[in-house]
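Aim 2 progress update. The chain analyzed this quarter is reproduced below.
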Amino acid sequence: MTASVELLLVVGMAGLVFGSFLNVCIVRLPIDESIVTPRSRCTACKTTIPWYDNIPVLSWVVLRGRCRNCKEPVSLLYPLVEMTVGLLWVAAVWWYGPTLTALTAAIFGTLLVGIAVTDARTYLIPDEYTLGGLGVGIILAAFGGIPSVLRAAIGAAVGFGLLYAVAAGGERLFKKEAMGGGDIKMMAMVGGFLGWQGVPLTIFGGALLGTIVFLPIQGIRSLAAKRRGQTASELLVPFGVFLAVAAGLTFVFGERVLDWYMDYLAG
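Predicted structure tokens:
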């Protein structure tokens, strides 16, 4: 199924707007601040940002990445998040056509971007992303009828239960918290969107990506500390970042991976 250029432009602009709102969530949710009021303001001088300075991406470019009032730099993260979500929405409609699947992919992807960026910045995954996202996932599943809702509910239960078991086992083994509650609730949301089959793929993919990225970093830090005659501090891992990437890949390629694996087992 294809989509017209005009539709892709409209969808891209909608994605930019959602990306702008996601920036508000990324900044405010971890500190329990309302995402509705007050209006967007400069983090440095606290001046309320007028609408013409709050146009996604464009305003940042026109102002050269600085506040109009105090001239303090505005983080590059803001336009990057907006562009990422805008491109994600376009890609969803281009890939799946103007369908419910495309809408589901766009919303799921937006939630994953919010989780990844927030976890990377604060090591927190707010419930608004996970529990709120689970509710949205079940509502979207309802358009597919009772079987789709059951698939989402079972997926959420498996996602929560499986990662809770991993966390409990890790805590017993290492005598300390092995995984945050946000990660566990995130997997309930992921299961709601992907179904139970996508849960183990996401957890395996997230663990693999986290190991590939953080194991070398920890090794380098340990060598550097050893040369100084010190012990390297434990490296905190924002596991939600890697789960988010793995969940997005599973949404797009999960069925193909599972089909390949079943064919492999069947010889």
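The chain has nine helices and no strands. The radius of gyration is 20 Å. These observations will guide the mutagenesis experiments scheduled for the next reporting period.
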